[in-house]
Amino acid sequence: xxxxxxxxxxxxxxxxxxxxxxxxxxxxxxxxxxxxxxxxxxxxxxxxxxxxxxxxxxxxxxxxxxxxxxxxxxxxxxxxxxxxxxxxxxxxxxxxxxxxxxxxxxxxxxxxxxxxxxxxxxxxxxxxxxxxxxxxxxxxxxxxxxxxxxxxxxxxxxxxxxxxxxxxxxxxxxxxxxxxxxxxxxxxxxxxxxxxxxxxxxxxxxxxxxxxxxxxxxxxxxxxxxxxxxxxxxxxxxxx
Length: 240
Hints:
Elements: E1 5-8, E2 14-20, E3 23-30, H1 40-52, E4 54-59, H2 76-90, E5 95-100, H3 102-114, E6 121-124, H4 130-133, H5 137-144, E7 149-153, E8 156-160, H6 162-170, E9 184-189, H7 198-206, E10 212-217, H8 227-238
Parallel strand pairs: 3-4, 3-5, 5-6, 6-9, 9-10
Antiparallel strand pairs: 1-2, 2-4, 7-8
């Protein structure tokens, strides 16, 4: 892919993005927590759109990838506003957000602001409300007190910030009906050790849309990045 372009937010921070013009709707890939547009799934969707003559938008949230800013300042609200700003600046016509993990939460917040431009949604191991179900009571107490919580991962110690947690708790969507009516496709691996697959089931039930299809991959992990997983995701996308 070509070098990224940049969109300047009102405070001057630059959001890196790659935009492929083409037929509508425009695919907008939303990566997960601490992820960026260089991942396997992002590249697969971009190449698929290119082969189909379709439009695709990839981007890095502030503090991630090639965008400006500090990750410690990132919140769902901040990243939602960045996504919407880039969408408004470089695209026209209908939009189809594709959210992976945390991006599956962010896609709901973005969808609520797109109005008539919203064409559909696709969630991959979607993780709405993970600040709630994904944290222990001890973690929540420490985060509420303003402490940074460090998670252990295969990649080392990962900081989890109170600003993100506080904003996330205010952005929970699984507590009632989610007023989104477009077609929705959800895909989740049943061997996902990061986001339980029943979260996608809860999301399916919470969405007001009557056209919500959930596909469970019995041997699928959180990443869903194997060749067969990518083929499934692209086939699911083609169903729109």
